[in-house]
């Protein structure tokens, strides 16, 4: 780094994205993307006029998409804020509500620590139980912002929405942020709770279940006063945060409900199939409600399995956090990809 950089930036450890290697074609099961394309109807509905319209700035309010999301969940447009991926949504939340401190699980989405550092939020890590579940009572009356990924990142384990509600009730005087990146593979959405609780912020993304990771669209649903706070952050940073084409793609994708449900059910079925196959090979597989599984075998360390799979053209993710460093995280791909994965793992373990 240069000598001009601030001390804070000097100290910070930025988020490390999963590999997106360009050297050869891998079976890519490392970043929890959707193996299926986004709806053809959504893509087909983009016109030349839309592209020529790019000479204008995008609508800072993303009105058409906001309307679609509000209708979809039966909330008001003033309960919705559109962001450039949900990472931006989380960044806004940490800026607005993190100064009083933030707490989240020791094993969870790695970006929370980065945002906490970046925006000067004292962070507390609440250890998951030995079986990687959350004991909700450890999240009661925290007096600081609570952040929960549900289903949780890295483990895939989910809390029932009833438990989420209890956490929200026991934190009436601070904000609870629920990061729902994987919620559609689980099925219990916390969004309806925003009508009852004015301290709940729900963060969602089009990157996973709606196959638009590269379009970068996320959104926040919350009480209207919280949306006012978060809009103040947005308009102090980047009013035109979402580009017109991504906004239209997201809107169109949300309007193609049949295709969406089909893709999600295929992935859920493939997740169950993959978990069963891994268990047959002697793996411990955490019960996932997401589009990935965290799995380990006694026969080989997590890092070594990751490396062997990479040699064989399959990318999975390995994390060096002590509690999960003997696991690999495998994204659910197509049925064909799952078959190749299982066969390859079998070969690797047999040829050891
Ligand atoms: C993937 C992911 C996100 C970020 O998604 P965006 O692509 O920025 O919308 C946020 N939280 C969790 C837990 C994730 O896994």
From TrEMBL:
* Domain of life from the UniProt record: Bacteria
UniProt entry keywords in alphabetical sequence: Amino-acid biosynthesis, Aminotransferase, Histidine biosynthesis, Pyridoxal phosphate, Transferase
Task: Quote the catalytic activity from the record.
Answer: L-histidinol phosphate + 2-oxoglutarate = 3-(imidazol-4-yl)-2-oxopropyl phosphate + L-glutamate
Question: What EC number(s) does the entry state?
Answer: 2.6.1.9
Q: Which positions bear N6-(pyridoxal phosphate)lysine? A: 208
Q: What InterPro entries has UniProt attached to this entry?
A: Aminotrans_II_pyridoxalP_BS, Aminotransferase_I/II_large, HisP_aminotrans, HistidinolP_aminotransfase, PyrdxlP-dep_Trfase, PyrdxlP-dep_Trfase_major, PyrdxlP-dep_Trfase_small
**Which pathway does it take part in?**
Amino-acid biosynthesis; L-histidine biosynthesis; L-histidine from 5-phospho-alpha-D-ribose 1-diphosphate: step 7/9
The UniProt record lists the Aminotransferase class I/classII large domain at 25-345
Identify the cofactor(s): pyridoxal 5'-phosphate
Q: Name one GO molecular function term.
A: histidinol-phosphate transaminase activity
Task: Give the UniProt record's GO annotations in the biological process aspect.
Answer: L-histidine biosynthetic process
Q: Can you say what this protein is called?
A: Histidinol-phosphate aminotransferase
Q: State whether it acts alone or in a complex, and with which partners, per the record.
A: Homodimer.
Q: Which family does it belong to?
A: Belongs to the class-II pyridoxal-phosphate-dependent aminotransferase family. Histidinol-phosphate aminotransferase subfamily.
């Amino acid at each position: 780094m240069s000598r001009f950089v601030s001390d804070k930036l000097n100290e910070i450890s930025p988020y490390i994205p999963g590999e997106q290697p360009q050297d050869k074609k891998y079976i890519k099961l490392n970043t929890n993307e959707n193996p299926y394309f986004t709806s053809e109807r959504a893509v087909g509905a983009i016109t030349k006029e839309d592209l020529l319209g790019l000479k204008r700035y995008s609508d800072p309010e993303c009105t058409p998409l906001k309307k679609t999301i509000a209708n979809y969940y039966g909330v008001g447009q003033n309960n919705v804020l559109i962001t450039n991926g949900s990472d931006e949504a989380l960044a806004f939340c940490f800026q607005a509500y993190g100064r009083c401190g933030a707490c989240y699980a020791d094993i969870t989405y790695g970006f929370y620590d980065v945002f906490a550092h970046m925006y000067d939020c004292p962070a507390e890590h609440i250890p998951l139980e030995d079986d990687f579940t959350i004991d909700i009572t450890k999240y009661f009356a925290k007096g600081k912002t609570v952040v929960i990924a549900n289903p949780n990142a890295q483990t895939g384990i989910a809390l029932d929405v009833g438990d989420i509600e209890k956490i929200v009730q026991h934190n009436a005087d601070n904000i609870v942020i629920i990061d729902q990146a994987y919620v559609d593979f689980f099925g219990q959405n916390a969004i309806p709770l925003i009508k009852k609780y004015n301290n709940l912020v729900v963060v969602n993304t089009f990157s996973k279940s709606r196959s638009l990771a590269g379009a970068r669209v996320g959104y926040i649903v919350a009480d209207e006063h919280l949306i006012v706070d978060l809009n103040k952050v947005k308009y102090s940073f980047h009013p035109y945060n979402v580009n017109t084409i991504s906004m239209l793609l997201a809107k169109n994708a949300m309007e193609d409900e049949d295709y969406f449900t089909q893709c999600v059910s295929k992935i859920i079925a493939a997740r169950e199939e993959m978990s069963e196959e891994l268990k047959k090979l002697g793996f411990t597989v955490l019960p996932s409600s997401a589009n990935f599984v965290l799995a380990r075998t006694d026969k080989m360390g997590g890092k070594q399995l990751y490396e062997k799979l990479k040699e064989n053209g399959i990318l999975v993710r390995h994390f060096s956090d002590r509690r999960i460093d003997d696991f690999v995280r495998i994204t659910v791909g197509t049925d064909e990809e799952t078959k190749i994965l299982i066969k390859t793992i079998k070969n690797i373990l047999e040829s050891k």
